[in-house]
DNA sequence: AGGCACGCTAAGCGGCCGCTCACCTTCGGC
DNA sequence: GCCGAAGGTGAGCGGCCGCTTAGCGTGCCT
């Protein structure tokens, strides 16, 4: 319903690494379907149909429906982690790097909301092995944000008593954007990113 | 697995309004199952089994599986809204009322995490009518928090530029507790409530 | 031109899904 | 002691699920 428009809107689909073309179309179709209805409520026939193929075509490129979710989740977490790492490795002080990290992380969750929704909310549908792999990536995400906050506390920029708890809250705030953000709503991803960066700086007691 | 222990732990199950007894046992079983696996991945056989009944017994008390989710969602939202209204109608200044509202709202999402998870994350599984009814309750939840923040801005206690955006962020932060809170984790619901009340007061620029 | 690997489809298998139905038990009122 | 209502069961229905298999078209390699 809206994918073609979104893609035509100027944003590049970040699935270039998925080949061949048919496998990518199936994966993009799966992201849409999972985001709209949830993993368990999505049928393989629905995914194949959205990709313009027969139900059996899915099994040429993926062993199971769960492998599709695993690939989506893995690529999405890699992308999210990359965004945070870029911001965390920046050259400014902790205040600037935290603002960068939050605004770009939020921008991704809002702008690529469809993907983010699947990545953040369908973890439980994965089997134990895939789940463990993704949980490890999440720990790295957490460590990245915690690192910036620890830097700010050490330099005296931030006033934070409970570093772990605050890290958790900051990430939670950002991730939940994928649940409520509405493309047709009044805010652009950029605006939400800016608002949230400001709110998070307040949370850590940074000077403005 | 854990319900009996939880109930024995001292907390009262807030399902007293559901009668007869068998209907309540089915509903409690459904809450557990929905929270663990999600609505679509839960079978009516599983729900009935957890309640110690045959699959057919479910349909004596509920017309469909969706009606179970509707009842759960309705009661849960009523409870959450009641908690907020109690805090909002308190006698203190906006700072105290916002801290009360956040800490009690968060305490509910952490302490009754199983219910909160179903209530907050399974909305899309409802049909259009039930969905609309629940969305109306959510608007009332939003209005309650926005009211306190507007009071604080008017009295000069808070420094908030974007009242609607900040309200959204505060609620989002509280609700997402239901996603990550772990009963076996290091924090009690009380501790998280206190931490979050502090973080939210910082977000609105309240004096400490 | 022949062969064959590859991508895909039509058809369908076994199984579990939500839900129904015919029947059974228990129990309070008279 | 009989009756009807209320609450429960075992068996099973139609249908959709994830996934498989046999076979077909197409185009590159020789």
Describe this structure in words.
The structure is a homodimer of 208-residue chains. Chain A is an all-alpha fold and 208 residues long. Chain A folds into two domains: 3-61, Arc Repressor Mutant, subunit A; 66-203, Tetracycline Repressor, domain 2 (Orthogonal Bundle), CATH 1.10.357.10. Helix content of chain A is 69%, strand content 0%. Chain A has helices at residues 3-8, 21-37, 44-50, 58-61, 65-88, 94-111, 113-121, 128-154, 163-175, 177-180, 189-203. In chain A, helix 2 (21-37) packs across helix 3. The longest helix of chain A is centred in the C-terminal third of the chain and has 27 residues, at 128-154. At the A-B interface, helix 9, helix 10 and helix 11 of A face helix 9, helix 10 and helix 11 of B. Chain A binds a DNA duplex (30 and 30 nucleotides) through helix 4.
Mean pLDDT score of chain A: 92
Instruction: Classify the fold: give the CATH topology of the largest domain in chain A.
Output: Tetracycline Repressor, domain 2
Structural class of chain A: mainly alpha
Q: Which series of helices and strands of chain A comes N to C?
A: HHHHHHHHHHH
- Under CATH, the homologous superfamily of the largest domain in chain A reads Tetracycline Repressor, domain 2
Q: Care to count the β-strands of chain A?
A: 0
Distance between the termini of chain A: 43 Å
Quaternary structure annotation:
homodimer
CATH architecture of the largest domain in chain A: Orthogonal Bundle
Rg of chain A computed from alpha carbons, rounded to a whole number of angstroms: 18 Å
CATH class of the largest domain in chain A: Mainly Alpha
Measured by residues with Cβ under 8 Å of the partner chain's Cβ, the largest interface is:
A-B, 27 and 27 residues
Number of helices of chain A: 11
Amount of beta strand of chain A: under 5%
Summarize the biggest pleated sheet of chain A.
none
Shape of chain A: elongated
Q: Give the count of structural domains of chain A.
A: 2
Helix content of chain A: 55-70%
Low-confidence stretches of chain A: 1-10
């Amino acid at each position: 319903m809206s994918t073609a428009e979104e893609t035509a809107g100027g944003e590049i689909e970040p699935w270039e690494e998925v080949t061949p073309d048919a496998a990518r179309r199936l994966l993009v179709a799966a992201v849409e379907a999972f985001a709209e209805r949830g993993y368990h409520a999505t049928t393989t026939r629905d995914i194949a149909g959205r990709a313009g193929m027969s139900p059996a075509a899915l099994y040429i490129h993926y062993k199971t429906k769960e492998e599709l979710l695993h690939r989506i989740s893995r690529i999405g977490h890699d992308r999210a982690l990359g965004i945070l790492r870029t911001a965390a490795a920046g050259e400014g002080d902790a205040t600037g790097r935290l603002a960068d990290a939050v605004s770009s992380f939020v921008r991704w969750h809002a702008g690529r909301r469809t993907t983010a929704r699947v990545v953040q909310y369908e973890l439980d549908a994965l089997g134990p092995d895939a789940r463990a792999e993704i949980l490890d990536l999440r720990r790295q995400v957490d460590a990245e944000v915690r690192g910036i906050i620890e830097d700010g506390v050490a330099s005296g920029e931030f006033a934070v008593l409970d570093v772990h708890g605050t890290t958790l809250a900051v990430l939670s705030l950002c991730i939940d954007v994928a649940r409520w953000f509405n493309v047709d709503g009044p805010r652009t991803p950029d605006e939400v990113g800016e608002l949230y960066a400001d709110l998070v700086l307040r949370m850590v007691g940074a000077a403005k």
